Amino acid sequence: MDDSWDKYADGWDSNPAVIAYADNAYHALRNTLDPDGWRILDFGCGSGLLTERLSDSASSIVALDPSQKMIETLDAKHLKDVVTIASELDQNVILNNSHLASTFDLIVASSALAFVSDYTETLKLLKQVLRRGGYLVQWDWYKKEGDEGYGFTEQQVQLAMTEAGFSTVSTSIPFSMKGEGSTLDVIMGVAINDS
Predict the structure, then answer these.
(1) Is 50 exceeded by the pLDDT of residue 1?
(2) Among positive and negative, which fits the CA dihedral 70, 71, 76, 81?
(3) What are the residues whose beta carbons fall under 8 Å from the beta carbon of 152, sequence distance 6 or more?
(4) What is the value of pTM for the model shown?
(5) Which of 28, 54, 167, 192 gives the lowest tally of CB atoms within 10 Å of its CB?
(6) Percent of the chain, pLDDT > 90?
(7) φ, ψ for residue 157, nearest 5 deg
(8) Annotation: CATH topology of 3-192
(9) What are the domain boundaries of the chain?
């Protein structure tokens, strides 16, 4: 992830596909877990569309994204109990940012983990700030086994989460997005920090 997302910040919240993706991710989460009252990290939060949907019922949310302009868009919404961090996630940020000092009940990553340079290593970093028994939930484009292109297969998600130290992992295809002449499935990975 990098600040190249700055150029998308101005129109992000008015993009119907982006709004639909956030709505679908939120409903898929609600169909899987009840995060009311939880402390949540929104990893790769962008302009905070998922953060907005979670903010009314969460105890608090830390929203992290490397795009300063996306974070500025989120900050302008003045959401209650939401703190933002404009940064990549690395060991230094985990050790030195007070907002990451307490562990989270839930980490969400909506269309974010496909953009990191090392998927498994990023999952390991996220696991460090997730409480024992806490959940990590990701959504990204689904790629069938053997397909070229962008996204993750179920095997890739399960293998990376297992290698990162999560022992309870499940995947599903909770929704699809219609594009110009095609339909793209979205994979949801759910992992529990058992250790």
Answers:
(1) no
(2) positive
(3) 113, 114, 119, 140, 141, 142, 143, 187, 189
(4) 0.94
(5) 167
(6) 83
(7) -65, -50
(8) Rossmann fold (3.40.50)
(9) 3-192
